[in-house]
UniProtKB/TrEMBL annotation:
This is Radical SAM protein. The lineage of its organism: Archaea, Methanobacteriati, Methanobacteriota, Thermococci, Thermococcales. Its cofactor is [4Fe-4S] cluster. PROSITE patterns: RADICAL_SAM. Gene3D superfamilies: Aldolase class I. The keyword Metal-binding applies. PANTHER family: PYRUVATE FORMATE-LYASE 1-ACTIVATING ENZYME, PYRUVATE FORMATE-LYASE-ACTIVATING ENZYME. Keywords: 4Fe-4S, Iron, Iron-sulfur, Metal-binding, S-adenosyl-L-methionine. One of its GO terms (molecular function) is metal ion binding. The keyword Nucleus does not apply. It holds the Pfam family Radical_SAM. Residues 1-204 form the Radical SAM core domain.
Length: 263
């Protein structure tokens, strides 16, 4: 596949295509890791996150940035496709990467945009957990593309087997973007996917994103059903965990990373 065709294919599917393929602004300048960490500390932030463009395209920059951020007490996370070698993953974590939001695009039955091996994404997610990082998985359910039964059951099965029932899974709604014109994922289908993941594969922390539903962004105690963390988009509205991250009603330990830091 030529670069032009590959670029066109990604543009057709990705809602953030304009970030990767637009012309560079004239006033761009390089920001050093030192400047970025200093800015985060000055603004009162408690962490750094590499996102939108695939962060591994900035791999060597992130090694320096995360090492410096770690020294200054900042957490470091990536929103990533999770497609890298085990050695590259280990170096990221050794240099301070503490959290990964990893997209699982599909299953072995589908070959979209090349020959990506989805099994390697689960391999890397599992290895990150073993190395002590916090991992959450993202499944964007795209209408008539990766939402068929064989595919979602493979995703849920591998998630349960390799990552465990306590690793969060976000099932996100797809919307048409750019040239990709399939209809947005029906909410009823997303609800079905969540129910299958919870009831048939025993996943404890399953969320639905991109539908504006506080109910489906809330963390519930897997034992007693108590509401523990109520969210709205990027905001935490209510935090009811005890200081040692237990359910206040039944005492179940909730495997959450970090702490609540109200603005």
């Amino acid at each position: 596949m030529t670069p032009t065709l590959k670029r066109d294919a990604w543009e057709r599917k990705c809602q953030n295509y304009h970030l990767s393929f637009s012309d560079l602004p004239q006033n761009l300048r390089e920001t050093s890791p030192e400047e970025l960490v200093e800015l985060a500390l000055r603004k009162g932030d408690n962490g750094l996150c590499a996102s939108f463009n695939e962060p591994t395209t900035l791999y060597t920059y992130l090694l320096d940035l995360f090492a410096l951020g770690k020294k200054k007490g900042l957490y470091n996370c990536l929103v990533t496709n999770g497609y890298f070698t085990p050695r590259a993953l280990r170096r990221l974590i050794e240099n301070g990467a503490s959290g990964f939001s990893i997209d699982i695009k599909g299953c072995p039955e589908m070959k979209v945009l090349g020959t990506i091996d989805n099994k390697k994404i689960f391999r890397n997610a599992r290895e990150a957990i073993k190395l002590g990082a916090h991992v959450e998985m993202i499944y964007l359910a795209v209408t008539n593309t990766n939402d068929f039964e064989e595919c979602y059951r493979w995703i849920f099965k591998k998630h349960a087997e390799l990552l465990g029932e306590d690793t969060p899974l976000h099932i996100n709604r797809y919307y048409p973007m750019n040239y990709w014109k399939e209809k947005e994922t029906p909410v009823e289908r997303l609800l079905m996917l969540k129910e299958v993941a919870q009831r048939e594969y025993n996943l404890n922390y399953v969320y639905i994103g991109n539908i504006g539903s506080i109910k489906h962004e809330t963390t519930y105690c897997p034992k007693c059903g108590e509401k523990l963390i109520i969210r709205s988009a990027y905001r935490v509205l209510t935090w009811r965990l005890t200081k040692d991250n237990k359910c206040p009603k039944c005492g179940t330990k909730i495997p959450i990373y970090g702490e609540f830091n109200p603005f």
